[in-house]
């Protein structure tokens, strides 16, 4: 029976030294197998898991997140990919702030429109080609009328003859007959005043111009940041980093960093963390990572942190990744290693030597073996515990008191699971409903058959319901003071994380933290 190591060891008892060495050796072999899969295509996915875990950290203040990300933005060499993604977020969520910066530099629009009929059409025209009603069209018509003495001759009309200012003053809708493409091209060549005008500047302030070609403006702003070191751009960036939530920023930005920059970010993040393990839920994946990160610094290589995050916080995804790989030999090797680890003679002090190694040094390496052992527990539970009886034997063996939960245990007369909203409920409900509907159709087709056929169908349906009921289990556990109902789908992840959290508490207690 699988041992969860939930009783604190006697620290001066080293246990069986040979068994401890065997466990460390097998866990190292497990690490090699996992790395072989990650190296063959899973590393990018592991990086994404890491970024998502970091995004869940909740103890960073808005001030610190701004300081952290601004330091990263200003570090050498320039983080242009990172900056570009951040600017995309600003354009999406605060377009008026970017628009105000463009408005101060309206001259850039001359370059923006030169030789680009599509942009001209999008900003100035309406459907059909005439002058539109948007901010660009409004700026063009207002400037043309106010400054008619210098630009009226540059207006091109669709009719046989042009319109005079006096006529347009009384009938402003005549501006709709303007040949926008030809007029803007004339202004680009002959009316430089328009590109510096208040009318054009005002039309840019709401940021709607960004919709015409976002890529152009991202590149423009990146140049303002890194080539011109524009103060107003950095101020807008800083304000946004204080306003946006840490989770959204991390999910969008961290994936753009290369591994060296991500290591630098983790080292900076380490200095801003101070979580306390006793006050948090072990199911909070980001919190387990946050605690380890707060105690360990000097990240020079991502390998260890990628592995630790994968086994501690993404056990389910890691198992899926390992199963998706076509290398049957690696999968057999993995299963063999896990079986050997679980077959080592166990008692409450079996992990003592590994945990005591964590007492001595504060680095990722110290936690790696504990993380791997917790994943062994996850793998074993996910693969081997398939029935309510097997779960209850596990609880009893590890001295976990439990109560059967009323939820998810009973099927009503229609074959629907009562009292639950989990995925398992929905799957079971859909399956039984489908069978019931299928049986109704079949009874209609066989309406002239003997009633005994229907009785057999009913018996079969009842048997299916009983089989389903026998495989559905949900329990309240003493380890969380019976506060939540856990089913077989969630128990492997919950118990493996609870074990790791428990072991970490022992480590931090020895550190005096």
Structure description:
Residues 408-437 and 441-470 have low confidence and may be disordered. The protein has three domains: 17-59 and 273-383, no CATH class; 72-249, no CATH class; 423-470. The protein is 64% helix and 2% strand. The protein has 25 helices and three strands. With 513 residues, the protein is mostly helical. It has helices at residues 17-55, 62-74, 80-93, 95-103, 108-113, 117-124, 135-146, 148-151, 165-170, 180-190, 198-204, 214-226, 231-243, 246-253, 259-270, 285-295, 303-313, 315-324, 328-343, 352-360, 364-384, 388-397, 423-445, 451-470, 491-511, and strands at residues 402-404, 474-477, 485-487. It has a three-stranded antiparallel β-sheet, with helices on one face. A hairpin with a 7-residue loop joins strand 2 (474-477) and strand 3.
Features:
513 residues, mainly alpha, three-stranded antiparallel sheet, 25 helices, 3 strands, elongated
Structure summary:
It contains 25 helices and three strands.
Average pLDDT, all residues? 82
Classification by helices and strands: mainly alpha
Low-confidence stretches: 408-437, 441-470
Record the strand order, biggest sheet. 1-2-3
Count of helical stretches: 25
Output the helix-strand order: HHHHHHHHHHHHHHHHHHHHHHEHHEEH
- Gross morphology is elongated
Summarize the amount of helix as a percent range.
55-70%
Q: Rg to the nearest angstrom?
A: 33 Å
Q: Percent of residues in beta strands?
A: under 5%
Cα end-to-end separation? 34 Å
Major sheet: 3 strands, antiparallel
Number of E-state strands = 3
The tally of domains stands at 3
């Amino acid at each position: 029976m699988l041992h969860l190591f939930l009783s604190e060891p006697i620290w001066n008892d080293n246990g069986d030294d040979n068994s401890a060495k065997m466990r460390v050796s097998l866990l190292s072999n497990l690490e090699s197998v996992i790395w072989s899969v990650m190296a063959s295509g899973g590393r990018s996915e592991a990086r994404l898991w890491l970024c998502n875990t970091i995004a869940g950290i909740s103890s960073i203040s808005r001030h610190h997140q701004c300081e952290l990300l601004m330091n990263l933005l200003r570090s050498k060499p320039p983080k242009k990919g990172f900056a570009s993604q951040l600017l995309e977020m600003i354009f999406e969520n605060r377009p008026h702030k970017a628009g105000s910066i463009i408005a101060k530099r309206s001259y850039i629009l001359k370059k923006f429109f030169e030789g680009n009929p599509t942009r001209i059409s999008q900003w100035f025209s309406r459907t059909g080609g005439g002058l539109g009603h948007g901010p660009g069209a409004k700026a063009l018509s207002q400037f043309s009328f106010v400054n008619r003495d210098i630009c009226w001759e540059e207006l091109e009309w669709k009719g046989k003859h042009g319109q005079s200012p006096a006529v347009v003053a009384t009938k402003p809708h005549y501006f709709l007959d303007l040949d926008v493409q030809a007029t803007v091209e004339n202004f680009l060549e002959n009316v430089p005043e328009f590109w510096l005008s208040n009318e054009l500047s005002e039309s840019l302030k709401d940021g709607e111009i960004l919709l015409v070609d976002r890529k152009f403006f991202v590149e423009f702003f990146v140049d303002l940041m890194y080539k011109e070191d524009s103060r107003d751009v950095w101020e807008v960036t800083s304000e946004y980093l204080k306003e946006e939530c840490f989770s959204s920023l991390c999910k969008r930005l961290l994936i753009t960093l290369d591994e060296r920059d991500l290591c630098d970010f983790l080292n900076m993040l380490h200095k801003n963390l101070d979580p306390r393990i006793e006050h948090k839920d072990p199911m909070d994946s980001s919190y387990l990572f946050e605690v380890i990160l707060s105690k360990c610094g000097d990240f020079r290589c991502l390998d260890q942190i990628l592995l630790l995050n994968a086994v501690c916080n993404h056990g389910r995804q890691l198992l899926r990744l390992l199963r998706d790989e076509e290398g049957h030999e690696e999968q057999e090797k993995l299963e063999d290693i896990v079986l050997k680890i679980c077959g080592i003679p166990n008692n409450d002090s079996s992990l003592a030597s590994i945990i005591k190694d964590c007492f001595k040094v504060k680095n990722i390496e110290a936690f790696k073996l504990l993380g791997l052992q917790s994943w062994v527990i996850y793998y074993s539970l996910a693969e081997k515990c398939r029935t309510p009886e097997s779960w209850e034997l596990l609880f009893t063996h590890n001295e976990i008191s439990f109560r059967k939960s009323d939820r998810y245990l009973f099927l009503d007369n229609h074959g629907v699971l009562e009292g639950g909203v989990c995925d398992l409920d929905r799957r079971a409900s859909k399956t039984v409903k489908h069978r019931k509907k299928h049986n109704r159709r079949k009874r209609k087709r066989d309406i002239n058959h003997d009633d005994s056929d229907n009785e057999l169908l009913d018996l079969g349906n009842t048997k299916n319901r009983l089989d389903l009921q026998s495989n559905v289990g949900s329990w309240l556990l003493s380890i969380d003071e019976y506060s939540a109902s856990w089913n077989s789908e969630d128990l492997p992840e919950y118990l493996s994380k609870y074990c790791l959290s428990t072991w970490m508490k022992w480590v931090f207690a020895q550190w005096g933290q």
